[in-house]
Predict the 3D structure of the following.
Amino acid sequence: MTRGVGAGLLLLTVLTSAGCDTRRAPAGPVTITFTDSGWWDAASRRRRREEIGQFTQETGVQVDEIISTGDSAMQLGLRRGLLDKGTRGADVYGFDATWPGMFADEFVDLTPYVPASEISSHFAALIANSTVHGKLVSLPRAAMVPLLWYRADLLRDYGYRAPPGTWDELERMAARIQAGERARGRRDFWGFVWAGVRSEPLATVALEWQASDGGGAILDNGTITVNNPTALSSWQRAARWIGSVSPPSVVEYFEPDVSNVWRAGHAAFMRSWPLEFAFQARSVADENIGIAPLPRGAVRRAATLGRYGFGVSRRSAHPREAAMFVRFLARRDVQLKRALEFHVPPSIPDLYDDPRLMAANPHFAAILETLADGVIARPSAAAGVAYPEVSASYVAAVHAVLTHEQGAPEAAAHLEDTLRRITHLEPARRP
């Protein structure tokens, strides 16, 4: 018996003795399947292969990958296809933050497979988003929240000692820096870039605007809350940015487009995800780049949770082994290696006490600050399987305001009527 297989059998013994799963372990070697879209380049794929190899060495369980590519809409379509009734699909799935709410019935409750001490070791906000009606649908592997990237050198040049603390401050600072840079001949320079395309990225961005100002999360407490003056005002503010501090084409930007503008050095501020830190081919030196939490609104800071976890399909023929793999991917040492090499922010708070981690990832301080008081979840738990329709309708309304195809009151009223039909919920009572 090899040492790796012995370790795997020991893990199985511990899980069984803890009452995690009473079914008999398979007699022969086990192979599970796994799909995730969170690894893009050759180096990332190499790291994933190394992780799978380490898991197999420790446990004897083989892992086959199902290649998964494309944007969030394509990923959602793939997940739905793999989870269709009558098909087995994969054993382990990479999760976006919206999928626990949408697919809770399609995944096992991980609580019997994962010790309580492991569950509680992750950020509470991530576990809360992973839990649907008391069922732990996924286990976090990262703390993915968007941040504000800024040109520290330009802030110094224009007399600013700190990044903007509010959206209104960002607008003023972006306008001043943009005007100054254009006066120097940089006609293609913009103050602030973000993803405004009529797709899921806009849902995350717009939710941050309105929730930070106190405009709610579209659906709250079993009611439709999106049609309120605060939410509308936040949309109107963003519409004012377009052509002013943000390029007119921002309404067509996907997240890679935002990154391209930033990496070329054509913007003072950018809203993006923490993996941007690892992107190469930047034209601006690292010492001239700063990273901060997103600005606050009138009420709070609100950063939308992104892709971050793994779950086990209820159709898996090997849920025990699949859960072992999920635990491995979320494990402390595995996350530490991933953070050091790929700058992926861990989901375990005390890893941020590691001086090596913080030295390699100074922007992690902004992630900690965000997770302490600034997380907002998209309303997938409230909408359930209807979330894609809810999101698409919300995005269409916001996009219509940004492009001046509709006024905010008209767009919000139409959105409210659409959400009533989709969700069968009623609007909240207005004061």
Remarks:
- Confidence is low (pLDDT under 50) at residues 1-25.
- Residues 199 and 395 are 6 Å apart (CA to CA).
- Residues 3-144+306-376 form a domain with the D-Maltodextrin-Binding Protein; domain 2 fold (CATH 3.40.190.10).
